[in-house]
Specification:
The structure holds two protein chains of two kinds. A six-stranded mixed beta sheet of chain A has the order 1-14-13-17-15-16, sandwiched between helices. Chain A has a four-stranded antiparallel beta sheet with strand order 2-8-7-4, with no helix packed on it. Chain A is α/β, with parallel strands linked by helices. Chain A has 13 helices and 17 strands. The N and C termini of chain A lie far apart (about 55 Å). In chain A, helix 4 packs across helix 5 and helix 10 crosses helix 13. By secondary structure, chain B is an all-alpha fold. Chain B has a single domain, classed as Ammonium transporter fold (Orthogonal Bundle), CATH 1.10.3430. A two-stranded antiparallel sheet of chain B has the order 1-2. In chain B, helix 5 packs across helix 6. The longest helix of chain B has 24 residues. Classes of the chains: A alpha/beta, B mainly alpha. The interface between A and B is large, with 67 and 42 residues.
Chain lengths: ~450, ~325
């Protein structure tokens, strides 16, 4: 590479982390497109920020890609119908985290008639682009669900590096890997669009080294892209160590910059986007079809046919599992997302959300949980913490509800990656306790 | 389907490490030293180990029962305590004294403070110190190695450190293989180092404390005009540095804390050896540093990622 290049050749040092088992069973499974289910439930909150208000009512006829929910708030994204059919009712559903939100239940007519208003967006400026990104309904598809247009709404020249997060450090999940393999040109064209429209010169595709095929494919398209582009894009293989894909960790690994507590990636000149998000932006710019499907990994010992599936958003888990050959045995646990940070579901009636990247059905054996015992102060949690926290110390403060000490010891820096609980030989609910402490702090601010 | 799923907060995976597995590794790492003890001091070493292990486990069981707490003998930590205590006793000691030591370790030091993870000093070391002060003659009557093969009354000898105080030197070779007088487990350096390598390889302990401890003893005794090799090979330095000072509960968690802890142990050991009336100072150095652990950890706590350097106000 040229000497002027600002691109890193190898990742910078990152702290802690754990060697989680990879279990990427579905890495070689080409994604299958799932036919529209009989019914979808589109939740009005599939992102971080204000929930949407439904703009349709029971009995309305909707088509694929039609707007069905929107909000005036800035930190929010619109919702679109993922099937064509009739709105059955507007109802309230309980999300896996316990909050209740409105949802639109649509009965599919099976025809998938596209909405007439679908047309590629007209983009002449940076503002047009950011508006188009909002209209597309895209959120951070890596799992957090932060609206992408909010990430992009930063002052000009503030950001110099675009980081494409393809780390996929969670065990089991291979959806991003498949995105890279099956849609590498989409990925690179999305990166190019973002770089050109946002005037960013450098892009780094960060990917864990346990995906050699995807790395090779991405390197090829990057080399091709670098020939006719102002900026520069490269692939940076990261060590395969959970949680390399966490935003602050990936920024440190790619640029050696440390995001200060309470600050955003943009404050250190970075925008981090999931590989699926950029690929989707490319397709939206071309077709104008908003985000209505999602590539997810279906895995776990309780599923008959683990595979990658492209699923209409709002499809019930039950229907997805049905499409994957049904349950092999009674599942012990159903998880939205990966096993390290995913949410366990109370039943399989829950609809798929935009930011979900996996549905795991764990057998009794996989979900086995050991009884917690006393802390032996082995310090494994502290050495595993990517944020340099000392959990036993903080646990003491949480027990005493000593809020100033909790803040001072860095509790709010905790990103709940779960490394501490994963390594604990006493099986203590360490990260769970950190969550408790964080909510104590948040509640104290409210009062 | 309904109401049959487990709902818990993430993570939904665990590394599979358990307290029991860690303790089992420690036990395995002490096997070479136990074998060496049996070779040098005879079958009664094995008897003594058995007495200590069994009484520790039984006492732990009774304690937990009386205190109406969950039974914890399954985590094997009582076995480790018993084994370590046995290895810290002279071979010829009256088993009843050993049982008293177990009571000190398990009841007074460990369970009274809440059991595993809550004691602030190392149970085995504390028990050894209590016995040393209460039974000074029994605790310093050392049998010569291989005396058990003679049918006649056993002959007692001195430890290399005591011999050195009288100007007698022990060869490095004898120190390495353990052909000297001393506690059951402290004499054979090779067996102890083997165990230490096993623990480091299995990632049960970090090598920081042993290296700092032994390194400090080496450097400081050299600076003070002593034979540094003799000092690290003799007495309880190896046993203490590898197995006792690395006890999770009573040593700092972070690396810099471990460095300070190890160096502190080394300094106190050498000072006691050279300037106090006792020939050996490993036990006292470890217990003194144990007490300092909370302060060491406070001093060396890592700075959280992205946290601004604190501006000290008020």
């Amino acid at each position: 590479m040229e000497d002027k290049s600002k691109l890193p050749l190898k990742p910078f040092h990152t702290r802690g982390g754990v060697k989680a088992p990879h279990r990427k069973h579905t890495a070689e499974c080409e994604s299958v497109i799932m036919p529209p289910p009989n019914e979808v439930i589109i939740c009005m909150s599939q992102h971080i920020g204000a929930p949407c208000k439904p703009v349709v009512k029971a009995g309305d006829v909707v088509k694929v890609g039609q707007l069905i929910g929107d909000s005036d708030a800035f930190v929010s994204v619109p919702m679109h119908s993922s099937v064509s059919g009739k709105v059955k009712k507007i109802e309230t559903v309980t999300m896996p985290n316990g909050t209740k939100v409105q949802a639109v239940r649509i009965e599919s007519d099976g025809l998938m008639t596209p909405f007439e208003g679908i047309a590629p967006p007209n983009i002449n400026s940076r503002e047009d682009f950011i508006r188009a990104v909002r209209d597309s309904g895209v959120v951070g598809l890596g799992g957090a669900g932060f609206p992408v247009h909010v990430k992009l709404s930063v002052e000009k020249d503030k950001v110099d590096t675009l980081i494409i997060n393809a780390a996929e450090c969670e065990p089991y999940i291979t959806a991003d890997n498949r995105e890279a393999l099956e849609n590498s040109w989409g990925v690179i064209s999305g990166i190019k669009s973002v770089m050109e429209l946002m005037e960013i010169d450098t892009a780094i595709i960060a990917i864990e080294s346990n995906k050699p095929k995807a790395i090779k494919v991405l390197q090829e398209v990057c080399t091709a892209a670098n020939r006719d582009m102002k900026g520069e894009v490269c692939v940076l293989p990261l060590k395969a160590r959970y949680p390399q894909g966490a935003e602050k960790v990936i920024i440190k690994a790619c640029t050696n910059r440390v995001v200060p507590e309470g600050k955003l990636p943009a404050d250190v000149g970075c925008v981090v986007m999931n590989i699926g998000s950029v690929a989707f932006i490319a397709s939206y710019l071309k077709t104008g079809m908003p985000l209505i499907t999602k590539r997810i990994t279906v895995d776990g010992q309780a599923v008959n046919r683990p595979q990658n599936v492209i699923v209409p958003i709002g499809t019930k888990i039950k229907d997805i599992i049905e499409f994957c050959g049904g349950y092999k045995e009674q599942p012990e646990k159903l998880i939205f997302g990966g096993p390290m940070m995913g949410l366990a579901l109370p039943d399989d009636e829950m609809p798929l959300l935009k930011q979900n990247n996996a549905v795991l059905a764990f057998s009794k054996k996989e979900a086995a949980k050991l009884e917690p015992s006393d802390c032996i102060r082995c310090g494994r949690c502290a050495s595993a913490c990517p944020m340099g926290l000392v959990p036993p110390r903080i646990s003491g403060f949480i027990k005493q509800k000593d809020i100033p000490s909790m803040l001072e010891s860095g509790l709010m820096v905790c990103m709940e990656c779960g490394c501490c609980s994963f390594v604990c030989p006493a099986n203590r609910p360490i990260v769970q306790n950190m969550r408790l402490g964080k909510s104590i702090v948040r509640n104290s601010k409210k009062n | 389907m309904e109401n049959m799923l487990t709902v818990s907060s993430s993570p939904h995976l665990s590394s599979g490490a358990t307290t029991r597995k860690i303790m089992l590794d420690v036990i395995i790492s002490l096997v070479p030293a136990s074998i060496a003890a049996t070779v040098f001091f005879g079958w009664k070493s094995l008897m003594l180990i058995a007495v200590c292990v069994i009484s520790c486990v039984v006492m732990e069981y009774i304690c937990r029962r009386v205190m109406k707490r969950k039974n914890t003998i399954g985590d094997l930590s009582a076995v480790v305590t018993g084994l370590l205590l046995a290895l810290n006793l002279p071979s010829g000691i009256n088993p009843l004294i050993a049982v008293f030591g177990c009571a000190v370790a398990i009841i007074a030091v460990k369970q009274m403070f809440g059991g595993i993870g809550n004691n602030f000093v190392n149970p085995a070391i504390t028990a050894r110190i209590v016995l040393l002060v209460s039974f000074p003659v029994h605790m310093t009557t050392w049998e010569k190695p291989f005396e058990w093969l003679n049918t006649a009354d056993s002959v007692t000898g001195a430890t290399p450190l005591a011999m050195m105080a009288q100007g007698e030197k022990t060869s490095y070779f004898d120190l390495l293989i353990g052909n000297t007088g001393g506690c059951l487990g402290e004499t054979c350096v090779i067996a102890l180092v083997l165990g230490g390598i096993y623990l480091v390889a299995r990632r049960v302990i970090s090598p920081v404390i042993p290296l700092c401890f032994i390194g400090t003893v080496f450097v400081l005794s050299f600076v003070l005009g002593q034979d540094p090799v003799f000092h690290i090979l003799s007495g309880g330095v190896m046993l203490g540095a590898i197995f006792m000072a690395t006890d999770y509960t009573t040593s700092p968690m972070n690396t810099w804390g471990k460095v300070i802890f190890g160096i502190g142990c080394g300094i106190i050991t050498v000072l006691i050896r050279l300037y106090a009336n006792l020939p050996e100072g490993v036990s006292f150095s470890i217990i003194l540093m144990n007490i300092l652990v909370p302060h060491i950890e406070n001093l060396t706590k890592p700075r959280p990622f992205g946290k601004e350097k604190k501006n000290e106000k008020a």
